[in-house]
Write a structure and sequence with these properties.
Rossmann fold; alpha/beta; 5 strands; globular
Length: 147
């Protein structure tokens, strides 16, 4: 089983950017933890980050035919990335949306997701642990078992 884990704009600055909101783990540390969870689940995880919506779409289009699901933190594209949403929907893969912060307790413009309507679920406000919850839950669902 292969899961794509996609990190959107500015997530390359994790550990440096607004630590009170986004935590102190770097993207590399988060990806390393996800690889450890993947090994525990006996699955493959492919991680990708870009600050460009086009690069994210290219990655989804190139990698989704050989994948089983997607975990994505779209970053600010959550609120307006309609072409990203279309690429995710067109992949025909189950998608779980992740946010480090609780987007519903933040500014009003952050409280709407254009991704949520096409996602199986959304995990927000759990920091880096949200990625682990999303990955474990998606894999359990794909395997037909409880998380």
């Amino acid at each position: 089983m292969k899961i794509l884990v996609i990190h959107g704009p500015n997530l390359n600055l994790l550990g440096k950017r607004n630590r009170q909101v986004y935590g102190d783990k770097t993207l590399e540390e988060v990806n390393r933890l996800l690889q450890e969870v993947a090994a525990d689940l006996d699955i493959e995880v492919v991680t990708f980050q870009s600050n460009s919506e086009g690069a994210l779409i290219d990655f989804i289009q190139e990698e989704s035919p050989a994948a089983d699901g997607i975990v994505i933190n779209p970053g600010a594209l959550t609120h307006y990335g309609l072409s990203l949403r279309d690429a995710l929907a067109d992949s025909n893969l189950p998608v779980v949306e992740v946010h480090l912060s609780n987007i519903y307790s933040r500014e009003e413009f952050r409280q709407e997701s254009v991704i949520a309507p096409i996602a199986r679920g959304q995990v927000c406000g759990l920091g880096w642990r949200g990625y682990v919850v999303a990955l474990r839950t998606l894999v359990a669902e794909l395997k037909g078992s409880s998380p």
